[in-house]
Design goal:
8-stranded mixed sheet, single chain, 8 strands, disordered N terminus
């Protein structure tokens, strides 16, 4: 009992209420769901056809609160923290995106949900692609936001961009450099990949920096990038099995991936619609939340 109380207190200290981002609606339930040899922290709310929202690096599932609040009106909204990130468990391995796609399948099985719409950002795109490629009959529509897919299309050219040096940054020495300086490291992402850095609020920065400073979180984050070579091999095998055929919306910020998002997805899917969000860098949900929510809402609602 005492040990549980100490653990609960330590979490409160690690992530104080003053540093919280926009909360999910009060009706959302938070659960820890065992899946694929690990445990993911999952938020579930709303009622109707299911939609899964997958976050990327530098954030957690918390980034989706504005979209979840909109979609819950007519969807069951499922928002996990990816393996190793946020409040999910941090296993020693399994950070390749194929394994993480299987994590998502396990969550849906636990919730007794068969088919879903899928909305993803950043590394969430990569996990979402792997899940969709292995479970094509389970994904009705797929929205991807502002990040490439390893091994697909212009991946090798994208790797040469000097802004993406963090793709090869990792290992014990790098972890020692960043330990205790998580906020400095993460500010680099939030600043350099924003059209207007001030749009990524101080409250959000404090919130995510504290989560990434939790024990093992930066190691898990580096592991997400370290798996890219294996991800590229797996994704090329998925592509060899055939292109995706469900409707896909590929969204880029005009100061980030822009129209490249749709170009990437046309290498691996037959029904791709592109969209570009004006006055936005990589952090679409922070920089232009209203425009981004409308794009997703309109796409998921089309044809219904």
């Amino acid at each position: 009992m005492l040990r549980s109380a100490i653990l609960a207190l330590s979490l409160l200290v690690a992530v104080p209420a003053a540093a919280q981002v926009q909360p999910f609606p009060a009706s959302f339930v938070e659960r820890d769901i065992a899946t694929n040899g690990t445990t993911l922290h999952v938020r579930v709310g709303g009622k109707g056809p299911a939609v899964v929202l997958l976050h990327g690096y530098g954030e957690t599932g918390d980034m989706w609160a504005p979209l979840a609040a909109d979609l819950m009106r007519d969807h069951t909204v499922i928002v996990p923290d990816l393996r190793g990130l946020g409040l999910s468990a941090r296993p020693a391995s399994g950070y390749d995106k194929k394994t993480q796609g299987q994590d998502i399948a396990g969550i849906l099985d636990a919730l007794k949900i068969d088919k879903v719409d899928l909305v993803t950002h950043d590394i969430g795109n990569m996990v979402g692609y792997a899940f969709t490629a292995e479970h094509r009959d389970r994904v009705k529509k797929f929205v991807l936001m502002d990040a490439p897919i390893p091994g697909i299309g212009p991946w090798e050219e994208i790797l040469k961009n000097p802004l993406l040096w963090h793709f090869r940054f990792g290992g014990p020495d790098m972890e020692r450099l960043v330990a205790g300086r998580e906020r400095i490291y993460l500010d680099r992402f939030w600043n350099e990949f924003s059209a207007t850095p001030a749009k990524f609020s101080e409250t959000s920065r404090e919130h995510y920096a504290k989560l990434y400073a939790l024990p093992g979180a930066m190691h898990a984050g580096f592991s997400q990038f370290a798996a890219f070579d294996q991800d590229a091999i797996d994704d090329q095998a998925f592509l060899a099995a055939g292109k995706l055929t469900m409707p896909i919306l590929a969204i880029g910020g005009d100061k980030s991936f822009g129209t490249t998002m749709a170009a990437v997805m046309r290498f691996t899917a037959t029904d791709v619609t592109g969209a570009v969000v004006a006055n936005s860098g990589h952090w679409l949900m922070e920089e232009q939340p209203d425009a981004t929510v409308k794009l997703v809402r309109d796409f998921l609602g089309a044809g219904k």
